[in-house]
Amino acid sequence: MSATPEAAGDRRLLDLILDYDCNLACDYCTISPAMRARSLATADVLAAMRRARADGITRVSFTGGEPTLRPDLLGLVRAAKRLGFTAIKLQSNGLLLGAGDNLARLLDAGVDLVHVSIHTHEREAYERMVGRSGTHAAMLAGLRAVVAAGVPAVADVILQRITHARLPDALRWLHGLGITAADLWFVSLTDHNRDNVGSMPRMTEVIPSIAAAIAVAAPLGMRVRSLHVPRCLLAAAGGLDPIAWDPAADGVRVVSPDASFDLRDSRLTPDTRVPACTGCPFEARCPGIRRDYLARYGDAEFAAARGQAPRHVLPQVPS
Length: 319
Known about the structure:
Blueprint: H1 5-8, E1 13-17, H2 42-54, E2 59-63, H3 73-83, E3 87-92, H4 102-109, E4 113-119, H5 123-130, H6 135-149, E5 153-159, H7 167-177, E6 181-186, H8 203-220, E7 223-226, H9 231-236, E8 252-255, E9 260-262, H10 291-297, H11 300-305
Parallel strand pairs: 1-2, 1-8, 2-3, 3-4, 4-5, 5-6, 6-7
Antiparallel strand pairs: 8-9
């Protein structure tokens, strides 16, 4: 018997990139100044939500840019609730969540999961990365407000050259605040960050930091997921492959100011296989390697993880 559309949509997600505007200017951000002027009209967001519900999708995420800058955000969340979305996520930098009753109104409207991008946890490093002084306190207030409200929360942590060594301390800091889940995002060399090659380390440079972080997180009961780092490298580091997470595997429909597409087709989604992938025990469930990463470093690390010689595969990254 085939599943009903509603049942089939249990894990699928509608990811709404409302616009690219933001109140930060992170030094690794892929959003260009020209992109910041682009946004989805309210009517287009509502139409996308109606189409998704007609297709049985029951989960929705509001992101950006920074979605809390949108004056229509509360109305959009209420509309998602009325349309029957059973899971409503907000992805934010958190700066406005600790101010006044902003968070309370969002939760009352229907938000039931909050992701906060902390970038890194140390004040000076954070404010240097985001390009605005005085913002760490606002981000921290947002995190504390989310925890105090009892809403499920996830911290998004960027893995780039200047942050990854701090990852174990970042997880201790998050746990001390009451955050028990973290997603690790590997920096991307696309769009506005395309030429900032110094921001991207080799994955094998980062994995010792991930391993140290898991050694901290596991006894604390924290859930940690790693995006973009293939399972073969995580497994070679001592069986860390269970933390690998491929959000595109559940089915994600992205609607942005520029296009609508499946997350599997995003330039930020790993999608390229190298010769060492053939016969890998993870081949059936690993989406591959990101093209921007291969263009920077080739396939030597993945070949070494499989006990093979590198082929120095350097696919062209579309401009």
